[in-house]
Design a protein that fits this description.
This protein is an alpha/beta fold and 373 residues long. 32% of the residues lie in helices and 18% in strands.
Length: 373
């Protein structure tokens, strides 16, 4: 039964829970941490950790995508970002840091540099560099530009296509433009497609029915997101993931065994958040701001969402981290000298799984949860 409350005589609302509202309950068994696997497999592609990178230029350049891929995660390059608009955006990224340090308005500067047109030849070049590195190549495109950019992306030879917006639906209605029909588009492809974000059971189920291999749950909300104040949309991630997991279960029955992976995007800051997201039913998490803590991040410790540079309605502030906490390897695998779970993210996940007695991510999704807030 749904937990609903009456807002007033004419309106009721479902009660939702964020990740920090729930706690993981250990079982009767513990397990040696060395016997635990955090591996995740999407279609034919295996990753050693359930980590997909949020496709922000602040943290994902072609070189950074390659580094994350070699460390066992899934890096995703935004083909509508700076790396496909400029031959070398490094100076622009350094200038952004200067603007932040001078305490000047940064959103107008973001809008200005993202006004440069996307260059198809740069998409081809960036994908070529990533392919030659021998990693799984994934790129992100928005639903609005999918039809226009898809021929270039597909000809370049990517392994995974991510169609991501703030909210993505299987049925977009428009009287102005021809909408993207996700089901028809995915059916014509011979590579796995990840779509999202979504926030509830019904949308998740509809996205699964398009043939997507993975569905992104959430809108990437974190401390620097302003979707709440601009759009009034706030996603209680624990509830959203659990609802999407219920949709996956029903879709599994409906199709006789087709499994769709869930990627939690939002409200994930620490190793404990990763553990709670998987415990609610996610197969992987999408990390954004936590990767800005690593040395060598493209924007030098700045962080922003792709929607922060929207030319008409920017949604997202620019976060700034004064000092890196360690290398990307340390952020993912440790060792850590931070007692708050911001380093050794997947070592922390592995230990949580071991404390609860589970061998792998699939088993860990069955762990008990308790509301304690």
């Amino acid at each position: 039964m749904r937990d609903t409350v009456e807002i007033g005589l004419g309106k009721a609302a479902q009660r939702g829970y964020h990740l920090d509202d729930v706690a993981i309950v250990p079982s009767r068994r513990t397990r040696d941490v060395d016997d635990v696997s955090t591996a995740w497999q999407l279609d034919a592609y295996r990753f050693e950790i359930p980590c997909a990178a949020h496709p922000s230029d602040a943290t994902m350049s072609p070189d950074r995508v390659i580094e994350l891929g070699r460390l066992g995660g899934l890096g995703i390059l935004n083909v509508e970002g700076l790396w496909t608009r400029y031959e070398d955006p490094s100076k622009l990224l350094a200038d952004l840091r200067t603007v932040v340090e001078a305490d000047e308005p940064i959103t107008p500067r973001l809008q200005e540099i993202y006004a440069e047109p996307i260059k198809p030849e740069l998409i081809t070049e960036r994908v070529r560099v990533m392919r030659e590195a021998g990693i799984t190549v994934a790129v992100r495109v928005s639903p609005q530009h999918t039809l226009a950019l898809a021929p270039v992306i597909l000809d370049a030879g990517v392994d995974l296509l991510v169609i991501q917006g703030t909210i993505v639906s299987a049925e977009h209605v428009s009287t102005v433009d021809e909408p993207l029909n996700l089901k028809e588009f995915i059916a014509d492809l011979d590579l796995p497609v990840i779509v999202g974000g979504c926030t509830n059971y019904q949308t998740a189920l509809h996205l699964m029915r398009t043939g997507a291999a993975g569905v992104i749950v959430g809108v990437g909300a974190d401390d620097d997101s302003t979707s709440d104040t601009v759009l009034g949309i706030r996603v209680p991630m624990a509830t959203a993931i659990a609802d999407a997991a219920a949709a996956r279960r029903d879709y599994l029955d409906e199709t006789g065994g087709r499994y769709v992976h869930l990627i939690a995007d939002g409200d994930v800051h620490t190793s404990g958040d990763i553990a709670r997201a998987l415990a609610c039913g996610a197969d992987s998490v999408m990390l954004g701001a936590p990767l800005a803590l690593a040395e060598g991040a493209p924007a030098g410790g700045l962080w922003w969402h792709s929607s922060a540079s929207h030319p008409k309605l920017p949604r997202g502030a620019v976060g700034s981290y004064a000092e890196p906490m360690g290398s990307l390897d340390q952020v993912l695998y440790g060792p850590s000298d931070d007692p708050y779970g911001r380093m050794n993210l997947f070592g922390g996940l592995k230990r949580a799984m071991a404390k609860c007695g589970y061998r792998d991510v699939k088993e860990f999704q069955k762990v008990g949860l308790m509301l304690d807030r």
